[in-house]
């Protein structure tokens, strides 16, 4: 490292005799003491004319060393600007009492030294990579040299083997090589070779902690999980655990691949058009499961679903292996996610062989359903036939001090490339969970597997791929006056709507981790109220924000509820803030095959002059597993910037809206008289700015007002949709 006083501590470093009156700017690439010294003023004057001595004698030069302050000032300036211009050098020399030439030489030598250090560091990295490649090449040569014939035991030629035998040997060598490679990655953390023993893995994971009793459901789950946040307390895996993690990931990949490609013996039709796992056949097929037997008190939940999506396989892999893209695409399911450590980034410039330890929290958009927290490893691999696979498997048993309410058996997806940029995705969700804390009106939905199962993941993926394709479309017909045809305007408006939906999802579920504080004493048992203070946060208005959410059952099919809430013509029947005014659609972006999947810009024509210019941004989206209608008031000036292709990140939003889920696996063919017979589970959530001063005190009157607002809205919706349904 460069030290500011490294030359001041060596006064005899240079020859200061009178016979040596000149010096070079650098000495073997290092700054010299001379460059940190200043000549005296008299020595700077050169003799001229008759005053010159015909026999000049070498004169001893006068020097003074740089002061500590001068060195510190130049060091600080170098960090900000390594290449000062003439004006900056003159100003710096004037401030420090130095000559501009001295300042110039100091910066030149400093740059030279930094460049040398950087090149030395790069060379060491390249040398290490070269040694690694050479060792791998030698290993391949040795493996080819030592190949033996299966019949005589002598050196083998490919011609002596049958085709099937060649194929099996190649496959066996490839699998052994993969395990060795990943085990090698883990070995560098523990300093010793990794031994493969899957039976040891099973015995380790048999030692489960007892499952705690979380008590009965009482309204919302915020109080049960607000006291301790296991998610934030998760450490990175210990070095001693990493070999076990590698083995577990390889075994999980094999199990996922077999489950995804298995026939009817392992999978049976479910009651919502998905396939569910036959537990008995599964236990016979996979007797030595890496996670051991199912812990007492946990319920198994496994489903499989396939879909063809409009996205190429490479982009899908990038999204699944990037925690930010993954949590954004599945924001309705993944309430938060974090990559704790990357054990391998893959090979050949892609994610083949990538291995990362993660934690995530999965949710249903309702405060009445507890979230599922998981600590797991994610492994990506390209199969020999070109199919990609991404698998998750829990590591909860590596943290024995905590009680796990949910663990992931090998879950994930297989991605097959199709022509024209399409991909076929086969998704498997296999979990073991304690869901006794789920509210009674959601139990049928959760037990059916629709709430967290493969069908919901696949439906969300399909819808989001259509949305992304819509944002990239350029050939938009201009037939409808409300349609936005500008490519830049469409992208900006879709980006703003995406942020709005993500913000809504972070406040509607049972998660208490998103900077919200749950208010336990709100005076209303069936409404969960939270508060948040915002100060100078882009995209959020400053002040105190209240978020209120509640869920209830409606004896009306989900599609009818969705169509009612997204229709601007029926908005005045439930929206109290519109004061009964008519709502007009100003702009429209379709982002899917279903006409319900769209982003709209609405204007409220209210009789109140103060609200005559009120605009509302709304996104509605629907699939077979659920629907959303999310909206937020927006500023007219800001929206003009967005529609012109401007940056939408600084538009302030406070989203509110609705999440509509089926109350069970399907219709019973008759009247909707009870939960599970074809009705809807509706969650209403509002975010309201109650005071624009972040330092203001939250009053109980504000909480009561929000409670009244949400209750009044709920009653209006119940009356309107039940009346229309009958």
From TrEMBL:
Residues 57-67 have a biased composition (Basic residues). It is found in: Nucleus. Keywords: Coiled coil, DNA-binding, Homeobox, Nucleus, Transcription, Transcription regulation. One of its GO terms (cellular component) is nucleus. GO terms for molecular function: DNA binding; DNA-binding transcription factor activity, RNA polymerase II-specific; lipid binding. Residues 59-118 bind DNA. It comes from the Eukaryota. GO terms for biological process: cell differentiation. Residues 111-146 form a coiled coil. Residues 27-42 have a biased composition (Basic and acidic residues). Residues 57-117 form the Homeobox domain. Pfam families: Homeodomain, PDF2_C, START. Residues 1-67 are annotated as: Disordered. Residues 238-470 form the START domain. The keyword Kinase does not apply. PANTHER family: HOMEOBOX-LEUCINE ZIPPER PROTEIN MERISTEM L1 (PTHR45654:SF77). Belongs to the HD-ZIP homeobox family. Class IV subfamily. This is Homeobox-leucine zipper protein MERISTEM L1 isoform X1. It comes from Vigna radiata var. radiata (Mung bean). The gene is LOC106777013.
